[in-house]
């Protein structure tokens, strides 16, 4: 693991069912990628190989469009570790989930 990414998809619709359906489609896609991830109430955190994570980030807007999204914002935070020395998702949150 040499990177972690936080991604937030914000569909811009008043219809909550449509919002949830689009976010669900993105999460279903992330699940198929095989990377370690953690879903939070505002964003989803992923960790793994930097190049693989960037492929996922690139696909997310396409997934939202395929799910019927015509207007959404996608926010991404990237933490890159050139020497594989970063904190994992578990390092960051395990003590808060016990």
State the total count of DSSP E strands: 4
The overall pLDDT, averaged over residues, is 92
Which strand-content bin applies to the residues?
A: 25-35%
CATH topology: Alpha-Beta Plaits
Question: Sheet with the most strands?
Answer: 4 strands, antiparallel
Rg, rounded, reads 14 Å
**Which runs of at least 5 residues are low in confidence (pLDDT < 50)?**
none
List SSEs in N-to-C order.
EHEEHEH
Query: How many structural domains does the protein architecture include?
Result: 1
Q: Tell me the overall shape.
A: globular
Which CATH C-level class is it? Alpha Beta
Distance between the termini: 24 Å
Helix content: 40-55%
Name the structural class.
alpha+beta
Number of helices: 3
Largest sheet: spatial strand order: 2-3-1-4
Structure description:
This protein has 98 residues and is α+β, with helices and mostly antiparallel strands. Strands 2-3-1-4 form a 4-stranded antiparallel beta sheet. The chain has one domain (3-96): Alpha-Beta Plaits. The chain has helices at 16-33, 50-66, 89-93, and strands at residues 3-11, 36-39, 44-48, 72-80. The longest helix has 18 residues, at 16-33. Helices cover 41% and strands 28% of the residues. The mean pLDDT is 92. The protein has 3 helices and 4 strands; from the N terminus they run E-H-E-E-H-E-H.
Can you lay out the helices and strands and say which pair or pack?
Layout (H helix, E strand, L loop, with lengths): L2 E9 L4 H18 L2 E4 L4 E5 L1 H17 L5 E9 L8 H5 L5
Antiparallel strand pairs: 1-3, 1-4, 2-3
Helix pairs in contact: 1-2
